[in-house]
């Protein structure tokens, strides 16, 4: 349970803010052969406070919970997107195109295509994970650079770029948090630097209780109980985020994703503590 002194301190806070910064990288360009822009992906940074640090700053009048150095994927404008095979000039019928249907040569990546299209998935938060993994394995077996070690320099380069793009798409869509942030970007939501989302006291207290319970857990059974509760919380948040995105309630989705980040961090702490009992 949260101590009375912490409750009094939290009750006196004037502002509880959670800052989410979404920063996009400058477009990078491949060699002269192609010119699609490249965007980088970095997950939300871990929250910078714990129940122990909260006690240490109990006399302060404000608590800032910052999620700093946040980057999400942003669809960048591109130029000269390939529409013909670079080798035989056969026009493409579909996008993305990994191999020419005529000469079977590997093609340069089209980074203007969404990650959902690359992984042949619906652009929705509730993905078919089995289908996602199956698609990933199929593409990597086909595009892995080792398969092109005896090919021309162009084919080796394109296979490496294609393989890297598939890895990026898969890793982004695999995790609910990065998948949700990516969907927000696709839906046109810009979160400017310095934008705050209010954190209500009830949610803050819940996080404090969980962190303190985890610190005080003495057995694997106690720790596993926290793990199961956290997984249940994450499952509920996943359903709520999916509903919010389907309804176009992007602000609600953003706030729920912020909550998901905190519970994901708790889940990681639980895993570390359980490994300590082994």
Automatic annotation (TrEMBL):
Keyword Cell wall biogenesis/degradation in record:
no
Q: Which GO terms describe its molecular function?
A: ATPase activator activity; metal ion binding; protein-folding chaperone binding
Chief subcellular location equals cytoplasm
Q: Which CDD domains match?
A: DnaJ (cd06257)
Annotated coiled-coil segments of the chain: none
Q: What's a GO cellular component annotated to this UniProt protein?
A: mitochondrion
Mind listing the GO biological process terms from this record? [2Fe-2S] cluster assembly; protein complex oligomerization
Provide this UniProt record's keywords sorted from A to Z: Chaperone, Cytoplasm, Metal-binding, Mitochondrion
Q: Which residues form the J domain?
A: 113-178
Pathway(s) this gene product operates in, as recorded in its UniProt entry: Cofactor biosynthesis; iron-sulfur cluster biosynthesis
- In terms of superkingdom, the source organism counts as Eukaryota
**Cellular location of this protein?**
Cytoplasm; Mitochondrion
The task this protein performs is described as: Acts as a co-chaperone in iron-sulfur cluster assembly in the cytoplasm. Also mediates complex formation between components of the cytosolic iron-sulfur biogenesis pathway and the CIA targeting complex composed of CIAO1, DIPK1B/FAM69B and MMS19 by binding directly to the scaffold protein ISCU and to CIAO1. This facilitates iron-sulfur cluster insertion into a number of cytoplasmic and nuclear proteins including POLD1, ELP3, DPYD and PPAT.
Protein family: Belongs to the HscB family.
* The name this protein goes by in its record: Iron-sulfur cluster co-chaperone protein HscB
| Species the sequence originates in | Hippocampus comes (Tiger tail seahorse)
């Amino acid at each position: 349970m949260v101590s009375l002194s912490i409750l009094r301190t939290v009750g006196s806070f004037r502002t509880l803010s959670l800052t989410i910064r979404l920063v996009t990288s400058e477009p990078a360009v491949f060699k002269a052969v192609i010119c699609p822009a490249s965007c980088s992906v970095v997950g939300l940074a871990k929250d910078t406070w714990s129940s122990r640090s909260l006690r240490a700053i109990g006399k302060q009048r404000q608590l800032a919970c910052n999620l700093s150095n946040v980057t999400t994927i942003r669809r960048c404008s591109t130029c000269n997107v390939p529409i013909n095979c670079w080798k035989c000039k056969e026009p493409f019928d579909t996008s993305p195109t990994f191999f020419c249907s005529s000469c079977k040569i590997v093609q340069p990546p089209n980074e203007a295509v969404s990650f959902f299209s690359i992984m042949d998935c619906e652009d929705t938060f509730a993905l078919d994970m089995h289908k996602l993994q199956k698609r990933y394995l199929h593409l990597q077996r086909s595009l892995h650079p080792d398969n092109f070690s005896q090919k021309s320099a162009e084919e080796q380069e394109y296979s490496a770029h294609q393989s890297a793009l598939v890895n990026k798409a898969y890793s982004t869509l695999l995790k609910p948090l990065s998948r949700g942030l990516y969907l927000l970007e696709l839906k046109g939501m810009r979160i400017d630097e310095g934008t705050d989302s209010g954190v209500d006291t009830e949610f803050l207290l819940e996080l404090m209780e969980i962190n303190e319970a985890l610190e005080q857990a003495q057995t694997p059974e106690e720790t596993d109980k926290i793990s199961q509760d956290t997984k249940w919380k994450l499952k509920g948040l996943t359903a709520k985020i999916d509903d919010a995105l389907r309804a176009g309630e992007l602000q609600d989705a953003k706030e729920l994703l912020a909550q998901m980040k905190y519970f994901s961090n708790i889940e990681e702490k639980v895993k570390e503590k359980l490994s300590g009992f082994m």
